[in-house]
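Please describe the entry underneath.
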Amino acid sequence: MNVTPASPASTSRVELLTPENDVSNPEFSIVIPAMNEEITITEFVQWCHEGLADAGVAGEILIADSSSDATASLALAAGARVLVLPERGIGLAYREGILYARGDYILMGDADCTYDFRVLKPFVDSFHAGYEFVMGSRWKGKIAPGAMPALHRYFGTPLTTWILNRVCDTNHTDMACGMRGVTRDALVAMELSSDSWDYTSEMMAKAALMDLRTTELPVSLLKDREGRVSHYKRRGRASWSSPWRAAWINLRAIFVIRPDFFLLRPGLVAFAAGLLIALPLTAGPITIGPVRLALYWMLVGSTLAIAGLQAFLLGCIAQIFFDYRNRATRRWLKTFPYTRTAIIAALTVGAGIACNIPLVAYYLSHGGRLTSNLSIQERLSVVGLMLMVIGFCLFTSTLVLHAAAATTRPGGVGFDGATRDS
């Protein structure tokens, strides 16, 4: 057994244990987080060796272990590398594991023998065929009786997968499958930050944004071994709310990475609808059947237009933060160049001020009093206030958009919006 000190990027108390017959220059790295899995770890490592041999590929098995039992020593004896971690968390285990994984392709899963790692050839073949992200799917494969709670099988996983597909424009069938693979280069570029179960959701959302070449493979989910207890139950966290909390943190990761789904198009629709309501009423009330649209409807339209524009602009900015291909950054910097947009914003504010001049003039000429007969002045002032706020939002959002582009893409996008890497 050999002990390798931790790299500078990792936790100071992390250490790497290597087996006697360690593989040199592996093409594949099987990176597995483990915590107190002494019941299954030996068999699991043996499964991995069988799967690699069957696929005819040189690979390493790296167990990122934070156990208090004999999991680490058993894994090492079975021929796996063991990364001893002082802290717990599936996301943390994967992030630290990536630092030590030597293969070009990373395979992930669980150490509890619920996924059959004796069948690795389809994953290896998919990577060799050029795929960058290879997801397992229990729905395309088999789910053993009693292997998955009914709530997860018939409600939780299908619903969260459907939401992922809508928000991220993907076509997955099983977002919660623990068996998945990704190229090392793509995994490093993702800069994953989640510490808990949302690590997998963050990975899938970012894989979609990166336009990784993706495929799904059928995998089998096996029932837990006799005597094994889930991590939640071991740590006293199992309750009726546990699956709901797990679902929420996974959805939270997706929503935070793709807020533009809720902002960009809905905001644009709201903005257009608000203008269609407010602007025609400047000429006077409009009657449609029994409904009379007047000043209060102008206020509704103005509010809708302002809120919609702000949502749209926030959606543009949000796309820049996870713009791995620089496509959104180029698009929005071209749409909102600084000088031109600043001029348009200034002109819009000026037009709004001009629309308020008749009302201010009347107010000053009548001793600071307004009457109920100022319909045209009132309507113009509503439009004027809307234009002033629109101009302000346009200018300030453009400032933030350019700041975000310069901060998140250093060296790749200049302040003028020109890309230096294309």
